[in-house]
């Protein structure tokens, strides 16, 4: 278990009134999550309640229950088609559930303004999705701009973010096609962080990078997360990445949540799917899990 | 060069007819763009509409132009003035390339980019005006370019119903069996088409997203 996030959570717990704590426990009991949950008392930032999603005849997600706590990095691990990406898109309502509800910051995300919801959630995807006709600066500053920030403040913020993700200031004026894959992905992360959202959704953000760049970005992600304490939901099919970055790992298979474990628990888990993963990825995982936690 | 001498001798008339021709092409292309681009945007976002709309535009394209001019002649308000009629017919013909290219251009925008924009909280109109249209603009313009080139050619035929334009020289020349007169219409028309092609092509490259 990542030490910083544990202490973080205890601090949060101490600052919450007792009745809200009881409420959370009651919710947890109702949704049958108690056995799987860590003894967490802070109210979840994201909560899936009995969520199902189907397209035509395909059941993409069924009976999905999960809570994501403030400041943690929850990794959704699973193979292609297991429903990870769909779960992520349910949070910012790029996809709406067929049944059940997704709560964000305590309120069902189906209520309220969808645009407002999305602007409060950073979104990073594998293909980056940078706007090819915008410079890095305009890409990063887009949400602040449509939120009506003054020009000067946007410029300062962009420079601040470039520095935060380890890019030189002159990158600002470059177009995405003039950047390397790693730089593009950094710009993507900076863009997601632009309006300082509490939540970050990351869909295999490092999947298309070469191993060295990926390693670099993973390390920087950990450093960044230690500073920013965002609530992150991170989708990957790479167990090594999951162990390294996650405070908890939610293992998914065929549209169902199999189990939620910390990286250390995952390595020792008797769950057949979890141990199959560990076996498939072979040696050296222990160090990956420890690196993330240290 | 007999043709050159003929054109120089009649330069005022050549100029007038060229301007008339430009007017027919310009107004009809404008109408076609005003109808075709929004229609293309709509069918790019509503896949169910794309087949019927494109089929309709295709069918119009298959009607022989002379026949279409003839069909429209008895229509009350339209038939009163030949240029109204010509503009309507030219607009109809220009629709297909504009609708099709708008549709193709918008559908061709990387879905990851659109999804990222939507996920970031862009409204549908912000997505359209800040992302989809700027990225599709060169494809849309190349449709407009094709429409203009087609219209310049078709507008010569509109002279058959008395709408003026460079076609007048061509029909007159045909009647007089005088190559000089035909060419006095055909050459400026060809120059117009080339100029429009180059001009819009230049604009297209200028606006090309990087």
Structure in words:
The complex is a heterodimer of chains A (294) and B (210). Chain A has 13 helices and ten strands. Chain A has 294 residues and is an alpha/beta fold. In chain A, helix 7 (151-164) crosses helix 8 (181-193) and helix 10 runs parallel beside helix 13 (285-293). Chain B has helices spanning 2-9, 11-45, 47-62, 65-72, 76-80, 82-107, 111-120, 124-158, 167-176, 179-207.
User: Which range does the strand content of chain A fall in?
Assistant: 15-25%
* Strand order, sheet with most strands of chain A: 6-7-8-3-9-10
The SSE order of chain A reads: HHEEEHEEHEHHHHEHEHEEHHH
Could you give the distance between the termini of chain B? 47 Å
The quaternary state of the protein chains shown equals heterodimer
Radius of gyration of chain B: 20 Å
Number of strands of chain A: 10
Order of helices and strands of chain B: HHHHHHHHHH
Structural class computed from helices and strand pairing of chain A? alpha/beta
Q: What is the overall shape of chain A? A: globular
Ends apart, CA distance between termini of chain A:
9 Å
| Total beta strands of chain B | 0
Q: Determine the structural class of chain B based on helices, strands and strand pairing.
A: mainly alpha
Q: What percentage of the residues of chain B does DSSP assign to strands (E)?
A: under 5%
Note poorly predicted spans of chain A: 1-40
Give the overall shape of chain B, derived from the CA principal axes: elongated
The pLDDT mean of chain A sits at 82
Unreliable sequence segments of chain B: none
SS element count, helices of chain B = 10
Q: How many H/I helical runs of chain A?
A: 13
Attribute tags:
heterodimer; A: 294 residues; alpha/beta; disordered N terminus; B: 210 residues; mainly alpha; 10 helices; elongated
């Amino acid at each position: 278990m990542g030490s910083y996030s544990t202490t973080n959570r205890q601090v949060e717990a101490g600052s919450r009134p007792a009745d809200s704590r009881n409420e959370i426990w009651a919710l947890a009991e109702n949704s049958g999550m108690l056995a799987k949950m860590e003894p967490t008392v802070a109210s979840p930032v994201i909560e899936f309640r009995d969520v199902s999603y189907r397209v035509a005849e395909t059941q993409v997600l069924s009976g999905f229950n999960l809570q994501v706590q403030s400041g943690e990095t929850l990794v959704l691990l699973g193979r292609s088609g297991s429903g990870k990406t769909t779960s992520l898109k349910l949070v910012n309502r790029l996809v709406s559930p067929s049944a059940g509800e997704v709560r964000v910051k305590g309120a069902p995300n189906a209520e309220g303004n969808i645009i407002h919801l999305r602007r409060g959630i950073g979104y990073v995807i594998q293909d980056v999705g940078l706007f090819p006709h915008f410079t890095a600066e305009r890409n990063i500053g887009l949400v602040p701009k449509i939120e009506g920030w003054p020009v000067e403040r946007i410029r300062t913020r962009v420079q601040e973010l470039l520095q935060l993700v380890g890019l030189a200031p002159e990158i600002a004026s470059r177009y995405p096609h003039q950047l390397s894959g790693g730089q593009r992905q950094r710009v993507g992360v900076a863009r997601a962080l632009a309006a300082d959202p509490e939540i970050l959704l990351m869909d295999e953000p490092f999947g298309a990078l070469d191993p060295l760049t990926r390693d670099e970005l993973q390390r920087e992600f950990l450093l960044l997360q230690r500073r920013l304490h965002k609530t992150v939901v991170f989708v990957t099919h790479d167990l090594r990445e999951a162990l390294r970055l996650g405070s908890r790992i939610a293992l998914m298979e065929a549209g169902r949540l199999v189990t939620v474990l910390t990286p250390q628990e995952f390595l020792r888990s008797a769950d057949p799917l979890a141990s199959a993963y560990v076996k498939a990825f072979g040696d050296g995982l222990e160090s990956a899990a420890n690196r993330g936690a240290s | 060069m007999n043709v050159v001498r003929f054109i120089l001798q009649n330069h005022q008339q050549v100029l007038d007819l060229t301007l008339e021709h430009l007017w027919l092409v310009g107004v009809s292309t404008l109408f076609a763009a005003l109808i075709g681009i929004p229609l293309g945007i709509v069918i790019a976002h509503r896949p169910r509409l794309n087949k019927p709309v494109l089929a309709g535009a295709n069918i119009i394209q298959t009607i022989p132009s002379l026949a279409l001019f003839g069909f429209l002649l008895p229509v009350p308000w339209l038939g009163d003035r030949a240029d109204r009629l010509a503009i309507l017919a030219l607009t109809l013909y220009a629709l297909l390339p504009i609708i099709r290219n708008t549709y193709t251009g918008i559908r061709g925008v990387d879905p990851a980019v659109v999804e990222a924009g939507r996920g970031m909280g862009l409204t549908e109109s912000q997505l359209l005006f800040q992302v989809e249209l700027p990225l599709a603009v060169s494809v849309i313009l190349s449709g407009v370019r094709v429409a203009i080139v087609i219209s310049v050619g078709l507008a010569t035929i509109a002279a058959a119903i008395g709408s003026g334009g460079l076609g007048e020289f061509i029909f007159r020349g045909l009647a007089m069996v005088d190559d000089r007169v035909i060419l006095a219409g055909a050459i400026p028309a060809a120059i117009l088409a080339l100029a429009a092609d180059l001009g819009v092509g230049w604009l297209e490259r200028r606006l090309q997203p990087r």
